[in-house]
Structures are given as C-alpha cells and as structure tokens.
C-alpha cells in the first residue's frame, strides 16, 4: 500500500519542509511547523484543468453585467470601493467579538431585503443564536438563508443548488475539506478550503465573504497565504470599551485602500457614522493642555480627531515614550524637532501620546497635531478649543504643505472651528467662508508662537 505523503508547513508563513523544524527558516517563528497531508499532484492537476480558460486579448474581455452591487450599508460599500463586485472574494479579519458577524449579518440582511439571495454559512454559531441576533438587528428577510455547515463539499453543492447572489463563510477557520486530514483551522485546511470556495464563487459569479480570525500578532490566523488568494482584505477594528468600529481595507483589487468605514456598536447592532468628526470630538476636554485637534484625511474623507499627550519629567532612568494611534518614530522625530528647533527640552521627560477614540492616524499632515499636543502639555498651555491644525513637520524645523487643504478647512468650518493653523504654502488661493481665520506658518517655532 502506498504510504501517505505528508509535509511540514509553517503555520504562520506557509513555508514547507520535509522534516519537522523547531524554527522556521523563512519567518523565524518558533514551533510553527505542523504536519499536513499532501494532495496527490495528479489529482490536483486534473481538477485545475477542468473548465480550462484560454488566453485572450485584454480588450476582448467582456465586462458586461452589473459591475457593483450595494451591500446595503453605505459605509461598507465605501470601503469595498463602491459596492460588491461579482465573483470577488473578500476576507474580513478582526479580533474575536469585534463585530464581524454582526456587520455581515446586518449588511446581508439589508441586501436580502432588497431582493438578493444570500447564503450565510455559519460554523461558529447555532441557528438559534443567529435567529436571536437577527431579531435584535431587525433582519428578517426570507432571502437570507442561514446554513450551519462546515464541510466545504456540502457548501459547494449548496452554492450550486441555491445559486445565491452572495455567499458568506463565517468563519474560514471552521470549515474543512475532506481532501485533507488535518484539523479545521490549520494552514492546509484553510488554504485548500478557501481555494475551493473562491473558485466556486467565481464560477457562480457571486461575491464571497470570508471571515477570518486574527491572532495576537495581528495577522490573520495561520494563513498569511489567504491574503494573497482573495481580492480584498478588510480589517474590522476598534478598541474594547469603545463603541465605535472602523472597517479598513488593507488590500483591494477593486478600489482604494485608503477608505475607511466608521460604525458605532449599539444595542440594535452597528450604526453607520456618517459624520465621524463629530463623534471623535464629542468627549473632548476643552481647555485642557495637551489636547489638540488635527484635520486628517482618511481616503476621500476628512476627519477631525483629537491628539492627546502627557509630558512629565522623568523620575529615574531612561525617559519612557508610550505612543498609541500614531507612528512611534513620528512622535520621536517631532519631539526631537521641538527640542532642537523650538527650544523645548523634552529630553528628560516621559512622553505619553494617544489619539482619542482609538483612531489610527498615518498621514503626514497629522505631524502638526502631534506637535501642538506635545508643546501644549509641555508648556502647560491649552490650545484654543476652536483652533484646528494640520501640516507636515520637517527635520529642519519647517512646516510643509500637504494635500486637500480646502477639504480639511471646510470640515473644520462645518464643526464650528474658527481658527486654523496650517502650512503657509497651503494658504494660496484658499478662501474660507464665514468666520474661519487662517494662520499660515513656515516653521515649528512660528507655529508655537501662533498656538500659544
Ligand atoms: P460579533 O459580531 O459576534 O463578533 P465577531 O463575529 O467579530 O466575533 O460581535 C459580538 C459583539 O458585539 C458582542 O460583544 C456584543 C456586541 N453586540 C452589540 O453590542 N449589539 C448588537 O446588536 C450585537 C448583535 C452585538
Ligand atoms: Mg463571529
């Protein structure tokens, strides 16, 4: 009898080896190898030859048919790049309990009540649990088919049978294919199952949503490989204890990865937040030193967020620097610029800085927010509550121009801000309406003079 061939696969990066290794040579992870069965190459080749395609000129490819379909939630559509694309595979990652199932059930409920047929495969929750949740979310369409199944073969035949408009797999770690012996959730299972599901969704021309769990390290559990197989990777994130959730695209073959969708978790499910700035600023302590509002661009939207900091003398040893919501190096750089170019001696101070509400800010214009916040707390002078800032800070102590200036100023105006400190380069041709006063600055020193 032929011996079953097995191979050892790294569960975090997918590297393979013929013998067990304690440490992965590819990703340097310890104790990550697990035994997997190898699918017979002949069998695999036979499968992949089925329905073989032919090369054709790019101009000859038909793109007819409805390109995008709304999920039923505008914020969700925005992150997807304007709606679901037929035959596309979307991976939604996020911490357990963050609301992935809620988001999908709610969106699919809305989609189903619009007449679309949905196959919602659940491997994690019982039918009763889903029903109770659906009731709470006000989802009750007959077109939403809930299917408690974990076998890929059964799911594939149901897709054929019911011909749904959308397929949801909640979650990819719970399904398994009989071609593989290893347990559900292992890299071989996840990859093989995902491959079969994606192929079937493409054939059926239905968008496919795969829910994936995120490990402590932040990677989608086991298979990083999954991220390469799908068209779109979305992360649903938020802080525990905070009600709002951000849906962010990290890969999107059908749209921008800059867009975010903002939701608030309520008793009755997720509520779309169409004006995030208002929400992020709602608990701002006005007149407190260390609090500064920055006008930041997230995709096509401007969002006003508060940056908070505490700067206190170091009592012993090396100064501590704790940063959340912005890049650590960015904060160190700005602290150094403040020290050298504006004469604020931060070197012997602990620095704690965070973006209020759990937002993560990455664009250069946020520099000025960090700067204003640090300087304000160090000098113990509050930034005026009706002042907003933005601009990039350079190492020479200069304040550099940024993009989408009009949009940033307009958003601040809308929220009742009356003064904006911005790079001087950006002022040209800018006509703020109403009471907004613009203060253009060229250096960090000047910015601090204008601020306090
Ligand atoms: P869930 O969608 O089950 O998370 P995931 O699928 O990402 O693991 O979300 C569960 C959390 O959401 C749970 O902690 C309770 C909260 N929640 C609400 O606050 N309101 C609601 O209406 C629902 C359905 C859930
Ligand atoms: Mg879930």
Indicate the topology.
Blueprint: E1 6-10, E2 16-17, E3 33-37, H1 41-49, E4 68-69, H2 74-80, E5 84-85, E6 89-94, H3 100-113, E7 118-122, H4 127-137, E8 144-147, H5 152-162, E9 166-170, H6 187-204, E10 208-213, H7 225-229, E11 232-237, E12 244-252, E13 260-266, E14 269-272, H8 276-281, E15 291-298, E16 301-313, E17 321-324, H9 328-341, E18 349-355, H10 367-379, E19 387-389, E20 392-393, E21 399-400, H11 405-414, E22 419-423, E23 437-441, H12 444-451
The structure holds thymidine-5'-diphosphate and magnesium ion.
**Fourth CATH level, the homologous superfamily of the largest domain:** P-loop containing nucleotide triphosphate hydrolases
Low-confidence stretches: none
Structural class: alpha/beta
- Residues in β-strands, percent: 25-35%
* First-to-last CA distance: 83 Å
Mean pLDDT: 87
Number of strands: 23
Ligand roster: thymidine-5'-diphosphate, magnesium ion
Number of domains: 3
User: What is the CATH T-level topology of the largest domain?
Assistant: Rossmann fold
Share of residues in helices: 25-40%
What topology, given as strand order, has the largest sheet? 8-7-9-10-6-11-12-13-14
**Major pleated sheet:** 9 strands, mixed
Q: Output the number of helix runs.
A: 12
Level-1 CATH class name of the largest domain: Alpha Beta
In CATH, the architecture of the largest domain is 3-Layer(aba) Sandwich
What value does the Rg take, in angstroms?
26 Å
Please state the overall shape, judged from the principal axes of the Cα atoms.
Answer: globular
